[in-house]
Amino acid sequence: MITFRHSFDRNFKLPRLNTFLNPYSYLIARKSPELFNKFNIYPDGIALVVFLRLFLLYKCERQSFDMTSLARVVFESAEQQGKSVYLIGTEDRYIIEAVSNISHMYSNLNICGFRNGFFYDQNDRSEALNDIYVMSPDIVVVGMGTPAQEQFLYDLWRIGWRGIGFTCGGFFHQSAKSLDYYPCWMDKLHLRWLYRIFDEPKLFKRYAFQYPRFIWYFTLDCISCYLQNR
């Protein structure tokens, strides 16, 4: 059973790897517990929060790497504390726009480097890992989708980098349009999922078919966890 956290150390006192799971990525994570157990995992999405509270009586809040949640905290804290940040993910055109928007909002944030999240081959991926390791940023944010982003951060950790890492899913793609991606009223009503379908219609299939699968498998996992702990 995946173990979730519900708090974040904004002082970056401990080096750690952080990722975020929603109902869709939970289905992926449960197949690779050996990888995801290396991470501090936060519940992303109101549906997952509701089910955690309902099945496990687990008091938690939604935590996501976007500007309605932890991204704002991370960038503000990094700017105040003079931490260097490296951003990697999405396509060139989107990461460039995202970095421009982030730099505009956080003018004193030290973005020491960035690049797209696609690799020509394994050598290109290895060079990206080595470049980041040599640069040694305090914070690395990776947006490649699950589980590629988790594997990249863990491989970076394995070669000796010891900063703090975050996965961010589609944050860079969204931030290329605007850092305030979600309309305020939809955020307050927890309708972010509905706005994402409106903005990216291809996601309808994910919500329509994968979320019901999540309910089934999450229920089975909770029952299994309960029986093991009896």
TrEMBL record:
Protein name according to UniProt: Teichoic acid biosynthesis protein A
Annotated TM spans: none
InterPro entries to which the protein is assigned, alphabetical: WecG_TagA_CpsF
CDD domains: Glyco_transf_WecG_TagA
Entry annotated with the keyword Amino-acid biosynthesis: no
Matching PANTHER family: PTHR34136, UDP-N-ACETYL-D-MANNOSAMINURONIC ACID TRANSFERASE
A Pfam cross-reference name: Glyco_tran_WecG
Keywords: Glycosyltransferase, Transferase
